[in-house]
Amino acid sequence: MRKQPLLEVQDLKMYFPLRRGFFGGKISYVKAVDGVSFSIEKGETLGIVGESGCGKTTVGFTILKLYKPTGGKIIYDGIETHKLSAAEMFPFRKRMQMIFQDPYSSLNPRMTVGDIIMEPMIIHNLFGSAKGRVVYARELLQKVGLKQEHFDRYPHEFSGGQRQRVGIARALAMGPEFIVCDEPISALDVSIQAQVVNILENLQKELGLTYLFISHDLTMVRHISHKVGVMYLGNLVEYADTDELYENLQHPYTKALLSSVPVIEDAFTPKADLVALQGDVPSPINPPDGCVFSTRCPRAYEECSVSRPQLKDIGGGHLVACHLITR
């Protein structure tokens, strides 16, 4: 019997209104997320990859209801959270947290590290006393690889990697089950990225956490994720278990994305065939008819510009949205 996923996203849409003209005029919409569906089991990591502007971060923000979805369903632990008011959503804030991309702008420079970590505990009235919150905050610092003497220091006294550790500790402060990791390593030095990912993996094993890991770093996504979804122009074009996706690429965009990853080649490593894309990503205000990738796909044919392909299972839970693959 299939177990209940912790998170289910069904046909999620997030459109942002855009007025044209000085005096209001016609309203058009930026279709940042346009019909995305996936699920995440408890204790798993789903990696979402794609180019900048494809809607990855918007998916994470909308799941946490930092944006109110335009359409679709968000089902968390069996509850349709997209229907909840702000007051009804408040208890879920303890269970669902976020690690932000920029460790420099996501921490209040006027607050000490200790106060930053304790702030959500105060808002949700956890531990009942200031002493209890201080003790737990110091424990969290140690969990993320910082020292207790860092408790009274300010963010400007830390490196980028240390600041991101503070951000992780703050996300853990309320004992969440699910964390959206919004490109948590993209602003860090390469030498520090692996350390932060290792911390996230260790915390997942220790605390049973579930992650939505958003990134454009395909190598790191493969390392940390159990499943991977590939997004293009607000749409999910391929979705599969990590090993299956990386070893059995199907969608032309996924092939292009993976072929762009630099590799160290030697005499024993055959040179991979590169897939070069022509043109630019279309505007999400006016996406192409049919397949959103049809204007750049080297294999597109007539049907691709007429009808939009749906995600279909080609075997073993490997989903692909491509007429070339599923016809």
Describe the 3D structure.
The protein is built from ten helices and twelve strands. With 327 residues, the chain is α/β, with parallel strands linked by helices. The strands form two sheets. An eight-stranded mixed sheet has the order 6-7-8-3-9-10-12-11, with helices on both faces. Strands 2-1-4-5 form a four-stranded antiparallel sheet. The radius of gyration is 21 Å and the shape is globular.
Keywords summarizing the entry:
single chain; 327 residues; alpha/beta; eight-stranded mixed beta sheet; four-stranded antiparallel beta sheet; 10 helices; 28% helix
Write the layout of secondary structure elements.
Layout: E1 7-19, E2 27-40, E3 45-49, H1 56-63, E4 71-76, E5 79-80, H2 86-89, E6 96-99, H3 113-123, H4 130-143, H5 160-172, E7 178-182, H6 190-207, E8 210-214, H7 218-224, E9 227-232, E10 235-241, H8 242-247, H9 252-259, E11 312-313, E12 319-320, H10 323-326
Parallel strand pairs: 3-8, 3-9, 6-7, 7-8
Antiparallel strand pairs: 1-2, 1-4, 4-5, 9-10, 10-12, 11-12
Helix pairs in contact: 3-4, 3-5, 4-5, 5-6
Short description:
The protein has 327 residues and is an alpha/beta fold.
Helix residue percentage? 25-40%
Query: What class do helices, strands and sheet pairing give?
Result: alpha/beta
Specify Rg, calculated over alpha carbons. Answer: 21 Å
Largest sheet data: 8 strands, mixed
- Poorly predicted parts: none
What is the β-strand count? 12
Instruction: Give the ordered list of helices and strands.
Output: EEEHEEHEHHHEHEHEEHHEEH
**Terminal Cα span:** 31 Å
Mean pLDDT: 89
Strand content: 15-25%
Order of adjacent strands in the largest pleated sheet: 6-7-8-3-9-10-12-11
The protein's oligomeric status is: single chain
